[in-house]
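LAB NOTEBOOK - FOLDING QUEUE
OPERATOR: T.R.
BATCH SIZE: 2
PURPOSE: Compare the predicted structure-token outputs for two unrelated chains run back to back under identical settings.
PRIORITY: normal
REVIEWER: second-year student, initials M.K.

ITEM 1
FIELD SEQUENCE / FIELD STRUCTURE:
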Amino acid sequence: MTLAPGERTSWEAAKFETSMHRFVLVREADFGVALVNDSIYGYDTTREVADDAITTNVRLSLLRAPRFPDPDTEHGVHVITVGMVIGADVAEATRAGIELNAPATTVRGGNDVEPLVAVEGEGIIVSGVKLADDGSGDVIVRVYESLGRRTVGSLKVGFEHREVREVTLIEDDLEGARIGSELKLRPFEVRTVRITR
């Protein structure tokens, strides 16, 4: 391992590693490069300045392989998929990360299948749709803002329902919860809504 300036030991280098969720993006004002992956690996970023030029290095840690408490940790065959997207912005990096982690599935049949839920609004992504944990039959939808800016949109529900309201991440009721299909999200905000049937 090559140590960055200011790092004296491998432990100092490792403490700056961050977990990567689908992608990491290194970007200037008009050009970017995204490193996308099929899981959650660690990475670290360093910058070097030489001859008035700045070089950014991104290193991807594929395996940790500690010796304690299990000396056989991560031994064996591993299949790891990564990709690089040249010229990416935040939207392109997000799209590529989602495509790598959840490739499209083709379902053949006699009729088109309409989505249970959809969103309108730039940068709003549906990250999960599931039945409520309490067995009520209500539907839980998790959305997030992916571009790092405030946005307004709406949730479109493709089935009969009585109410759409915000809940906590663990599906508990919120005091003063937002009710309705309108979505107002802050940068990178995650929102969980409950659709009562």
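ITEM 2
FIELD SEQUENCE / FIELD STRUCTURE:
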Amino acid sequence: MTYDGPHVTEILLESDSLDGFLDGLSEFALARTPAADACGITLSREGRHLTVASSGHGARELDEKQYGLNDGPCLQSLRQGEEIMVTDTLGEERWGPYPTHAMANGTRSSLSMPIAAHTHTAGALNLYFSKPDGFADADLALLRSLAAQATGAIALAQRIADAQEFANDLETALRSRAVIDQAIGIIMGQRRCDAEEAFTFLRSASQHRNIKLRDLCAELVAGIGGRPPKEDRLRPRP
């Protein structure tokens, strides 16, 4: 079996969200690993583990068992950034009671591959098999590529989220600046002073009253205009 890149690209192009992409990725991994019964994708954020995508039967339950124990091949893979192979849960001595639980649920072997290793959103791609050494014929090059694709998608999603947060902060700052500028103009007219003196007056007033400068300015503008400043005017017209 060989890696067929365009199929993965199609998953990305057809997805309108990170969740959709990861769902498609887990389905693709399961379809391209016929011996597997289930596939799950785990992500960890600030110490909280979550199965964000799963295909087949049983992956989510096996993942969540590991979360409850805070131990297992999936968690070891995402924490250490390495592939973890379980050849046979019968006789497996790692991870406490987990192997016995997995075997009782019909899983005899598994394969976990790290996603976004050593980042704030580390994870793992997990495949579960009902027979020992089920991954013996798996296309490891393909699965590694899928894990890398997930890593790239998560990194891109994080950058987009960071950019959106910055844009929101910038919009808030611009709105605040506009209200402050309106208040400065009002004080300049009332006190017959320049902009610097007006700003100093407003800042002193906010400190004296122990309220934020922006809130003080909004109150002043509302008092003069009879209503709060319309912040939506700051948004560019379509």
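REVIEWER COMMENT (ITEM 2): The first helix runs from residue 5 to 14.
FOLLOW-UP: none requested
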